[in-house]
Amino acid sequence: SLANWLNRSDLTTEIADDFIKLAEADFNSKLRVRSMVAQTTITINAETEALPTGFLQVRDFYILSGSTKCPLRYMTPPQMDQIQGTSNTGLPKNYTILGDTFRFSPKPDASYTGYINYYKTFDTLSSTNATNYILTSHPSIYLYGSLFHAANFLGGINPQQVSAWQQMYATAMERLELNDREDQFSGSPLVQRGED
Questions:
Q1: Helices in the chain by DSSP H: which ranges?
Q2: Each residue of 137-172: pLDDT tens digit?
Q3: CA–CA separation, 7 vs 51, rounded Å?
Q4: pLDDT at position 110, please?
Q5: Eight-class DSSP state of 103
């Protein structure tokens, strides 16, 4: 399909797949919409624990201790270094992100279950995964994102066409974000309720 849009009979599937991967990396780095939100649990029994698969950004992170929900507060790594002592242990209250790991403070004195709502990358397309939310609901993001990346690589394409594809790609992502915001707040209007 990309080869047809680019009018290139010499475009191999392998090269076309690279343009799709570039588009996926680009929209995963820019978009933060509800369809990207995932929830998982993390066993917190050490100072550091691995980030969940596809992790992009935390929305909500807490530990359930008995029936009490204990929110974890984000700190920058330097802030955590300032408060973290070598013998501080207890129920973790803070976290930071170092590379591909969470770091907790104080260090856990037992095994705790952390609950995290986070933004996760959309599943990438592959021979074993033929579709995902973006391709199903917003295919123009894939099309124009891949065309834009292909045009930058291949060269020889009219700059006005490249600019048009870039604008169509940006518009398709803006439309997804707008639809997402509208869907979050659609439905019945808020109604003030009196005391019963």
A1: 2-6, 13-30, 77-83, 133-137, 139-154, 159-184
A2: 999 999 999 999 999 888 888 999 999 999 999 999
A3: 42
A4: 95
A5: E
